[in-house]
Design goal:
Layout (H helix, E strand, L loop, with lengths): L3 H11 L1 H30 L4 H10 L3 H12 L5 H14 L2 H9 L2 H29 L5 H26 L5 H23 L9 H4 L2 H4 L7 H31 L4 H21 L6 H5 L2 H16 L8 H29 L2 H33 L1 H28 L1
Helix pairs in contact: 1-2, 1-8, 2-7, 2-8, 2-9, 3-7, 4-7, 4-17, 5-7, 5-9, 6-7, 7-17, 8-13, 8-16, 12-13, 12-15, 12-16, 12-17, 12-18, 13-16, 15-16, 15-18, 16-17, 17-18
Main location: membrane
Keywords: Cell membrane, Membrane, Transmembrane, Transmembrane helix
Subcellular location: Cell membrane
Length: about 400
């Protein structure tokens, strides 16, 4: 059976630079996960206010909006691989902030590292997409989708998982050293990939007219759909993901941490496994199928809606969350594939940056409204109201886009 996982394995066997890139970003994701554990763990230890903890969450997303603008601009002038190396070096240097914060009990320093890491993530996203577009053959693009899925899931599965295991076992300074080593190793691997990758030269003469060609009104319905898929997923999925710890608290108030952590792990495992079972030869057909997309998003919401029924059956709840995020990340994979497939090399960096910014704004807006409703009416009321509204809105948008494509 042909799957995205097999497509990725074939591409890794064919391209040594892709092996280096994959290992580098898995290590980088590990480092980012450790950074989040260090920041959140220490803030909880210092009994930081709920407002501070909310600010940490916002700072882990919003600066990447600006970062994507910078990354999009840099891709017009600089090799994407050099941008990736530059952002990893900056990520390593940014660890000075948590070091200072830990040594001097300085909360703003811990908040600053979240801000900078989000900024660098936003800068690297369009560069990574452009690198995949340049380095892989047309029929190998599904492998890039699989690679992005693994990178996406690695932060929680590896970074957060390792951080949770070691948090009470070793000092935070030791965790910070492991964090720094992961970034340093990532930089080394990216430098090694540069020695074998042949398509890293900047192409300013081709990229100059990109902005003209990517005005929204000039895009085809298929291109608009590709850009909208990830923001649509963020609208439906972000409220549920943000509410997961609060849902665990309402389901099992006497042991919310004991339920929340396994649920978060099941979420990340589902995010990893869902896209990898897709048939790469059918991704184009899947991404154009409104029914499939709505089934995935509806299955995601339905699993969360049924979560309270699993209060007495932990493994049932874990299975529901695993299934929910298998479904949601199928949409994620189809969205990333659509951008790679439906935009040319000179357009893809800007298109991916547009997708990233839409995803960030949508997630921030929907999560903000969700938190207000949850504060006043409870987590489940917030989940039911926002998720149903978002799902209906996404359904209408997909229907309208489908009508335009058939004209």
């Amino acid at each position: 059976m042909n799957t995205l996982l097999l497509a990725l394995i074939r591409a890794l066997r064919s391209h040594s630079w892709l092996r280096f890139i994959g290992c580098a970003y898995i290590l980088s994701s590990l480092g980012n996960g450790l950074t989040q554990i260090i920041v959140f763990g220490q803030l909880l230890h210092w009994q930081a206010s709920p407002a501070t903890l909310t600010l940490v969450y916002m700072l882990s997303m919003l600066p990447s909006f600006i970062g994507s603008l910078w990354g999009e601009t840099l891709c017009k002038k600089v090799s994407p691989l050099r941008i990736l190396i530059f952002t990893e070096i900056l990520g390593l240097l940014a660890l000075i902030f948590p070091l200072y914060g830990l040594l001097h009990h300085n909360i703003p320093a811990l908040l600053a590292v979240q801000c900078w890491e989000a900024l660098f993530t936003g800068m690297s996203y369009p560069a990574l997409t452009l690198l995949f577009k340049r380095g892989l053959h047309h029929d190998e693009l599904p492998a890039a989708t699989a690679m992005e899925t693994i990178i996406f899931a690695s932060q929680v599965l590896l970074g957060t998982g390792l951080g949770l295991l070691l948090f009470d076992q070793v000092s935070l300074l030791s965790l910070l050293v492991i964090d720094a080593l992961s970034f340093a190793a990532s930089v080394a691997l990216l430098l090694m990939s540069g020695s074998v990758f042949k398509g890293i030269a900047p192409q300013p003469e081709e990229t100059a007219p990109v902005t003209q060609r990517l005005l929204w009104r000039c895009l085809s319905p298929l291109q608009k759909r590709s850009i909208m898929l990830l923001p649509a997923l963020a609208a439906v999925g972000s409220p549920a993901m943000a509410l997961l710890p609060a849902l665990a608290q309402e389901i099992r108030p006497e042991d919310s941490a004991g339920l929340a952590l396994p649920l978060i792990f099941a979420r990340s495992l589902g995010q990893l496994c869902g896209p990898l079972i897709l048939n790469p030869d059918k991704l184009q057909r899947y991404s154009a199928n409104n029914g499939l997309l709505m089934i995935c998003l509806g299955g995601f919401i339905g699993s969360y809606f049924l979560l309270p029924l699993s209060a007495s059956f932990t493994y049932v709840g874990l299975g529901m969350i695993f299934s929910a995020h298998m479904a949601s990340n199928i949409v994620f994979a189809l969205g990333t594939f659509g951008v790679l497939k439906n935009f040319t090399e000179t357009q893809v960096a800007k298109a991916s940056a547009m997708t990233w910014r839409g995803q960030i704004l949508t997630a921030t807006f929907s999560t903000g409204i969700t938190s207000v409703i949850a504060q006043n009416f409870g987590a489940f009321t917030a989940l039911y109201s926002i998720s149903m509204f978002s799902l209906a809105a996404v359904g209408v948008l997909l229907w309208i886009n489908g009508l335009r494509r058939t004209r």
